Amino acid sequence: MSEIAGRTGLRAGASAVVDESYSFACMRCGHGWEQSYEIEHHTDATGHEFVLYVADGRVVPSPLSRPACHNCDGHLVRIMRPGRVASARAAAHGSHRVPPSAGPVEAPVPEAAATRTSRVQHHWHLSDLLHPFQRKAS
């Protein structure tokens, strides 16, 4: 998720910059987005270290503190590794076609039904399929 960038042109006082990207999904409205951040490491006048999160050239709050949905401003947001939203969108818009050879599947005929005449069609019910798993009364 992170990569230390050996760049010149750091913001005044930054000793290092780390690039991090995250995927976000709002649990309230379902909106998903991705964002990359430059995390600048600084030291203040008293020697305390702090970081600044920079997104699109602007200093922003840490995305890990209290992320807000860009769509509904909700704060129930899931943070994931980068690429998760893009892969979900690709899967949703991709073509999931069923091969032409995959047709309807015929269920096996139980032995009791096999003794009936072939003209009688059996309509399957869930209870028929679960019959082998039912407990016998003792």
Write a structural description:
The protein has helices at residues 84-93, 111-114, 126-130; strands spanning 2-5, 14-26, 32-43, 49-55, 58-60, 77-80. The chain is α+β, with helices and mostly antiparallel strands and 138 residues long. The longest helix has 10 residues, at 84-93. It has 3 helices and 6 strands. Strands 1, 2, 3, 4, 5 and 6 form a 6-stranded antiparallel sheet that branches. The N and C termini lie far apart (60 Å). Helix content is 14%, strand content 31%.
Q: What is the number of strand segments?
A: 6
Broad structural category: alpha+beta
End-to-end separation: 60 Å
Our estimate of the beta-strand percent is 25-35%
Q: Helix tally? A: 3
Contiguous low-pLDDT stretches (5 residues minimum) are: 1-9
Rg over CA atoms: 29 Å
Spell out the helices and strands N to C.
EEEEEEHHH
The backbone outline, from C-alpha atoms, is elongated
Percent helix among the residues? 10-25%
Largest sheet: 6 strands, antiparallel
State the gist of this model.
The chain has 138 residues and is of the alpha+beta class. It has helices at residues 84-93, 111-114, 126-130; strands at residues 2-5, 14-26, 32-43, 49-55, 58-60, 77-80.
